[in-house]
Amino acid sequence: MFYFGLSDKEFLAGMQRLVDRADNPNPVLKAIGEDLVESTKKRFETATAPDDTSWDDNSKTTQAIKGRNQPLIGETHQLMNSINYQLHGTDTVLIGSPMEYAAMQNFGGQKQDYPPLWGDIPARQFLGISTEDETNILDTIADYLSS
Predict the structure, then answer these.
(1) How many whole angstroms separate alpha carbon 65 and alpha carbon 63?
(2) How far apart are CA 7 and CA 24, in angstroms?
(3) Is residue 10 domain-resident?
(4) In sequence order, what DSSP letters do the residues of 20-67 get, joined into one string?
(5) Which of 10, 26, 21 lies closest to 91 in space, CA to CA?
(6) Is residue 8 part of a domain?
(7) Which of 60, 81, 128, 143 is the most buried (most CB within 10 A)?
(8) How far apart, in Å, are the Cα atoms of 122 and each of 53, 86, 107?
């Protein structure tokens, strides 16, 4: 038979390292933020929401103006390239865009409610956490705490 044990000193030192890591979550929050920015940008390429549903196509009018059907992607990729993260306090990471129209593109809107719109805008959710994101977040936290 083989027994393995830790001395009290080793155990306490290991627990102290764990507490120290948990007391400073900024590195793990930054890693999570960077991962979420990248997964959000990929949604623009795949035209899919965090729940894996496909975005609505552009209207025929928008397709005629753009000459293509790539929802939320203009010539400069301005909205996609504006996706960023910010740490908020000591326990929160925010993902978003500073573009004024980002919320309208994400949630959609009706011309009757917002007369400046050229037409109804379908929701094309690009912000959110997918099942794959959840797994990556948990893995990132576990790696951080165990390192």
Answers:
(1) 5
(2) 26
(3) no
(4) HHHH--HHHHHHHHHHHHHHHHHHHHHTB-TTSPBPPPPPHHHHHHHT
(5) 26
(6) no
(7) 128
(8) 13, 27, 7
What pLDDT does 87 receive? 94
Q: 3-class SS at 96?
A: strand
54-110: pLDDT as tens digits? 999 988 887 887 777 888 887 789 999 999 999 998 889 999 999 988 999 999 999
> How long is the chain?
147
Q: What does the pLDDT look like over 104-139, one tens digit per residue?
A: 999 999 988 888 877 888 999 999 999 999 999 999
pLDDT of 36 strictly over 90? yes
Which of 108, 96, 81, 105 lies closest to 36, judged by CA?
A: 96
DSSP 8-state class, residue 87 = E
The DSSP symbol for 54 reads B
Give the pTM: 0.81
Nearest to 82 by CA among 65, 69, 100, 66: 100
Q: How many domains does the chain have?
A: 1
Please report where in the chains the tokens 């007391």 appear, as a residue.
23
Q: How many CA atoms lie within 13 A of 95 on its CB side?
A: 22
Q: Domain for residue 14, yes or no?
A: no
For residue 125, give the amino acid letter.
Q
Looking up tokens 């929802």 gives: 71
